[in-house]
Amino acid sequence: LSQARAGIISTVEVLKVMEAFVNEPNYTVWSDLSCNLGILSTLLSHTDFYEEIQVFVKDVFSPIGERLGWDAKPGEGHLDALLRGLVLGKLGKAGHKATLEEARRRFKDHVEGKHILSADLRSPVYVTILKHGDSTTLDTMLKLHKQADMQEEKNRIERVLGAISQPELIQKVLTFALSEEVRPQDTVSVIGGVAGGSKQGRKAAWKFVRDNWEELYNRYQGGFLISRLIKV
Q1: Tens digit of pLDDT for each residue in 140-182?
Q2: Selection from 179, 207, 183, 185 nearest residue 194 by Cα
Q3: DSSP letter string over 129-186?
Q4: Where along the chain do its domains lie?
């Protein structure tokens, strides 16, 4: 990937190498693949190839997704749980039909209190249903945020809200970031999630930061959070 980014080899060569990892069982390797594919997806979101890279993601990640399934198996380790969350999140965001349907079913049961999602599955499920959701989905997520009695769950929701796709809902998430519902130290996570969520989100987050720069700068007074905000 470094060679492709430097213009020494074609990105096509990188994708061919990635295809060779379909039977890879190791979480660290998949994490690296996921990160690198994320970089490519971000670049390709400005081209006509964005939908094609999503198809590629589904092709590469679906075999490991089918092997892992949704539920933990006896004797599994911590890395297996991390891998499951990573793979399901990647497939869900890319619009893998079976993953999206199962995520919606499990989310409905979670909201209704029939079957609470395990901590490992919450982020991938939340990301999936938001990415392909509407205003009702966002309202449900904000309600879950309000009801959460653990800060860990509030932070988990804050980090994924930026996955929502529609411009008017992206604005709603950005407004929420500066509201009293979000701790000042967590505002950056919400804005960062929007900036990393989509092409529309990047533009909206950049404009939002410029429009609210004075308030944000005064809030963080040149501390590490302002540098983190600038970085995202």
Answers
A1: 999 999 999 999 999 999 999 999 999 999 999 999 999 999 9
A2: 207
A3: HHHT--HHHHHHHHHHHHH--SHHHHHHHHHHGGG--SHHHHHHHHHHHTSTTS-GGG
A4: 1-94
pTM of this structure: 0.93
Q: H/E element holding 198?
A: none
Total Cβ atoms within 10 A of residue 132: 17
Q: Which residues of 113-126 are buried (b: 16+ CB within 10 A; e: fewer)?
A: eeeebbebbbbbbb
The pLDDT, as a whole number, for residue 46 is 87
Chain-centroid distance of CA 22 in Å reads: 22
Rg (CA), the chain: 18
How far is 232 from 57, CA to CA, in rounded Å? 24
